[in-house]
Amino acid sequence: MLDQAQKVLKAVFGYDAFRGEQAAIIQRVAEGGDALVLMPTGGGKSLCFQVPALLREGLTVVVSPLIALMDDQVATLDELGVAAVALNSTQDAGQQREIAQRIRAGEIKLLYVAPERLVQPRMLNFLQGLKIALFAIDEAHCVSQWGHDFRPEYLQLGQLAELFPGVPRIALTATADLRTREEIIQRLHLQGAERFLASFDRPNIFYRIVPKEQPRKQLLAFLGERKGDAGIVYCLSRKKVEEVAAFLAEQGYPALPYHAGLSNDLRAYHQKRFLNEEGLIMVATIAFGMGIDKSNVRFVAHLDLPKSLEAYYQETGRAGRDGLPADAWMAYGLQDVVMLKQMLNNSEGDERHKRVEQHKLEAMLGLCEEIRCRRQALLAYFDEVLAQPCGNCDNCVDGVQTWDATEPARQALSAIFRSGQRYGVGHLVDILLGRDNERVRTLGHQHLSVFGVGKALGEGEWRTLFRQLVARGLADVDLDGYGGLRLTERCRPLLRGEVGLQLRRDLSSKLPKAAASKASQLVRSDQREQWEALRSLRRKLAEEHSVPPYVIFPDSTLLEMLRQQPASLADMARVSGVGARKLERYGEAFLAVLANNEPVAEVVDLRHELVSLARAGMTPAQIASQLKCSEKNVYTLMAEAIASQQLSLEQALDLPEDLLGEIQDVFLDGEGQLPSVASVAGSFAGQVSEGVLQCVRAALQVEFEASQ
Ligand code: ADP
Ligand code: ZN
Known about the structure:
Layout: H1 2-13, H2 22-30, E1 35-38, H3 45-55, E2 59-63, H4 67-80, E3 84-87, H5 93-104, E4 110-113, H6 115-118, H7 121-128, E5 132-137, H8 160-163, E6 169-173, H9 178-187, E7 194-197, E8 205-211, H10 215-224, E9 230-234, H11 238-250, E10 255-258, H12 264-276, E11 281-284, E12 297-302, H13 309-316, E13 326-332, H14 334-346, H15 351-368, H16 374-381, H17 394-398, E14 402-404, H18 406-418, H19 425-433, H20 438-443, H21 459-471, E15 475-477, E16 485-487, H22 492-495, E17 502-504, H23 528-545, H24 549-552, H25 555-564, H26 569-574, H27 580-594, H28 603-615, H29 620-627, H30 631-643, H31 649-652, H32 657-668, H33 677-681, H34 690-706
Helix pairs in contact: 1-3, 2-3, 14-15, 18-19, 19-21, 23-27, 28-30, 29-30, 30-34, 32-34
The chain binds adenosine-5'-diphosphate (ADP) and zinc ion.
């Protein structure tokens, strides 16, 4: 069995060896046993059911909660030459009938379907008439009522056990906590499943947390070393998302906003661009994330503090799914703490719930002020022991300096107490530094015994100290009052002189510029040009096949090509990630680029040229022959140029007025949402090409956005 699995791994997926427990999982499932797989994002869960699907006779049914996820996997399998389809609500009855036919004829190996569809009696009936090889339940934590991804339809998947006795089932998730695990087993009736629990470490992610000083400037410095990389910048509020996205765009970074306040259509459009284009930065609230399968997200930056370590782990985990070095960067300050506490305070829910949330926030703050290895601390929170410091986080690399803050901390606490536990950090610092200003005078605070006792430290150091006192729960923010600081029970031993206090020193701004991270050094500088050439070939192929670039080849495979410099198809076949089908389809083209004897038409250049030709009045057909590419391609590029407002619809197409009106009407029937091209194409069959529809839609989209 394992021999065969190994062969499939190489021939179809192009990989040489299984990772971690993949082999054991595949063996278990291929031999007909049930399995529960807990593996972090990027761990390689998909292969755990895709390989058995190819080894077993019959149809593998994959349950997946999101259309975007399904489409991505189907496209990936398609590129590998594996017969996979997704059934979803965007297909019309005719398309669905055709898929059913192909399934009955045994032409399909994997069927992706949403849970609500799977549990429809008709669907279950249909499947019962077939030979089913395996059920794979992806994102199985959606069955948990306690998690924020809860999907009620998942609860009904338990019946598969009774309806399909003898058909193995595998449930997979990247959520590891004990309660979720038990819930999955119980609700999905997986009591007999073998459990595979992988380490949740993401060794390729470099963690860095810096004190927030001038966040935008700090972000720019961070991004400056990562030009051309795709990444996500998380912010807490919609407003801030908009502002930061605009700011980055102004600074010359390709950034798009994403939050729940945007129309569905615009959100979908931005998400699609993020997946399909390279080097885009998504500035987003936490509304963005689930279902992002993009493997080459090189960084995740937090401009605001997440509310728990669970959230931090999940959000940073979207970086580096491909296993290549990636960065998790965060700037945090006292204001974050105040904001989150405020939100928590105003949130609904009982006291117990609030206490739990409070506890989670404290754990998050603990990581920020951590003086040990960040990875050790993070994993410890998830009950996993990492024996040695990781060597791949800021604390390990830069070292942490601590200092004895016992005396200043007492002074600070005393300043809080003596001024009446109602003032914010600014005023408290004024008192400690003995600043004789109007506010101090009005309040008579120049007479306090702590007035001017803190001149040994600077303003910045005092601010850091207050932040750390709050982070450690020695002082608290009074949310009912004016947001001033007050003492907590926990500070008493320190005030009484029973314990001392060691704190980490903020160094970031004084430290010499940190060495460029591994993620920004993926490609040797002398190979940059070839790297770009490989990427643009990939981009061109991706556009031709209408799939995201990483579906053609992941970054790791392109990097392997750079490293190995294959000179023949036989060499190429040895590159990790090059399976038989891709070798046949793309081998020659990539060899040519590596041999540097065939300049790749840069898509971006192509678009520029296309824009000038269209402006000059050429028709799409003329442009296609001029640029030696398909007309379909010309339309796609035109639609993109229209979307980015390089081209107007009038410049692109010469449509009769009334026909244009007719097309626009059909699109605008969608009530505030632009329907997809595919869904309106039927209305114009034989009359207007999909390319034309694409362009008209793009123009409407621009108007839409302008009116937002
Ligand atoms: P998950 O679903 O667990 O987040 P994926 O299944 O998407 O992870 O796999 C992450 C990446 O790792 C994909 O690009 C996949 O092709 C790659 N991968 C998985 N298993 C292997 C392996 N055995 N060897 C090389 N690459 C692998
Ligand atoms: Zn470390």
